[in-house]
Amino acid sequence: LAILLSTGIRANELIVLKVSDISRNGTTFMIHVHDGKGGKHRDVPMLSQGKPFVIKYLQQRDQQKATWLFPSPSNSKDHIAHTTLFRWLRKLSKLMTKEIQPHTFRHSYSTLLHESGVDPLSIAAILGHSSLTMTKHYVRPSDQTLIGEVQDVKI
Is the entire prediction scored with pTM above 0.85? Predict the structure, then answer.
């Protein structure tokens, strides 16, 4: 789940990740997405907060020589199913005050990038969008941002 939040990739892109799709160059982690929506390939930088979770996961995961980053528990030659990911999210949702969907992470990631000053064209490229119109649907200002925007406005 840390990968969803720290990369903004889609759920169907996450479950088919291979161990070889994570590259590390110094302190930078990149996730290579093969055949994303529309058959697009892209490299997605991982936020630094997600790196420790990925490192720990890779160290703790079963030492089987599975190709998949998230191998199926019943068949290591296959990746986990969508239902497995949704089961994990249901468990997480029970701990939270609201339901969490895979796209919740994607929206949170894109909003975080936007509020951190990342250029909208870069956000669109990271998300795999060919148009800024689609990216606008993912970026929602937080309540704090809205309050900050109007706080000093005088009538």
Answer: no
Residue/partner pairs of 69-76 with CB below 8 Å, 24 or more apart: 69/17, 69/18, 69/19, 69/21, 69/22, 70/14, 70/15, 70/17
Task: Of 117, 115, 114, 141, give the one whose Cα is nearest residue 127.
Answer: 114
Model confidence pLDDT, tens digit, residues 13-40: 999 999 889 998 888 899 999 877 877 8
The phi, psi pair for 120, rounded to 5°, reads -55, -35
Identify whether the C-beta of residue 50 lies closer than 8 Å to the C-beta of residue 3. yes
Closest CA to 7 of 59, 82, 17, 20: 17
Alpha carbon separation from 117 to 41, 111, 123 (Å, rounded): 25, 10, 10
**32 three-state secondary structure:** strand
* Other CB atoms within 10 A of residue 137 CB: 10
Reported as a single tens digit per residue, the pLDDT across 133-142 is 888 777 777 7
